[in-house]
């Protein structure tokens, strides 16, 4: 493939263009934005060099001069949506509150771009906008009495929790859309079955649990409680 490196190469260390020849018709930002549009509309599996080229109105092979590998394209996509974080406010000094606010941004970001949880990997963790985000996270954690290694572990744990939580939310929503009946009908049938099973007396602890709190579950409050417990584990 044209432009494909013979040795391992970080896309961010690769110049967008050399000083010779005509100015390229596109930038990496153009290509990443086109890929994001496709993923937002049709899912990450629809992202290919062919589809991105069609979105831009150019030849497929010409894109390899800008982006040597599909993995590089994914990295560009993660970086371009990471620019959506609002990191303009200075840390307040309350590291728990600041980190909680960032996780709410992450959750919203993943709902805007439902393909994002599938690409969250250490491989894509050090793009320019990701580094900007990580630096801001560490600034928020200045008030936490811990080593930088521990702080990085905390950020990784929080991001992992948010990614898993949102992936489950998205999968649940996708399943609901595929049902031949309404979500309310589905829930009513399942609650009815569960109530009958609990009433048999075979599950006394489950019965006590439902007697204590019959629901419904406030998923936003549950998210905050779960995240708070992770943060509490790092507080001294």
Automatic annotation (TrEMBL):
Residues 48-67 bind DNA. The keyword DNA damage does not apply. This is TetR/AcrR family transcriptional regulator C-terminal domain-containing protein. Residues 25-85 form the HTH tetR-type domain. It comes from the Bacteria. Keywords: DNA-binding, Transcription, Transcription regulation. PANTHER family: HTH-TYPE TRANSCRIPTIONAL REGULATOR RUTR (PTHR30055), TRANSCRIPTIONAL REGULATORY PROTEIN (PTHR30055:SF151). It comes from Streptomyces sannanensis. The keyword Ligase does not apply.
């Amino acid at each position: 493939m044209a432009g494909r490196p013979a040795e391992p190469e970080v896309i961010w260390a690769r110049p967008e263009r050399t000083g010779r020849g005509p100015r390229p018709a596109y930038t990496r930002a153009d290509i990443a934005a086109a890929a994001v549009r496709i993923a937002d509309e049709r899912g990450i599996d629809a992202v290919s060099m062919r589809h991105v080229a069609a979105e831009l109105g150019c030849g497929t092979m010409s894109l390899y001069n800008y982006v040597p590998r599909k993995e590089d394209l994914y990295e560009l996509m993660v970086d371009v949506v990471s620019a959506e974080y609002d990191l303009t406010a200075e840390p307040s000094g309350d590291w728990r509150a600041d980190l909680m606010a960032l996780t709410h941004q992450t959750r919203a970001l993943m709902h805007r771009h439902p393909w994002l949880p599938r690409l969250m990997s250490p491989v894509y963790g050090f793009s320019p906008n990701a580094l900007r985000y990580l630096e801001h996270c560490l600034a928020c954690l200045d008030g936490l009495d811990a080593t930088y290694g521990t702080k990085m572990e905390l950020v990784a744990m929080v991001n992992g929790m948010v990614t898993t939580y949102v992936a489950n939310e998205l999968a649940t929503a996708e399943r609901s859309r595929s049902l031949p009946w309404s979500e309310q009908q589905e829930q009513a049938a399942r609650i009815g079955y569960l109530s009958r099973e609990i009433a048999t007396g075979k599950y006394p602890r489950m019965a006590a649990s439902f007697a204590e709190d019959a629901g419904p579950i406030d998923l936003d409050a549950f998210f905050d409680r779960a995240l708070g417990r992770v943060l509490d584990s790092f507080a001294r």
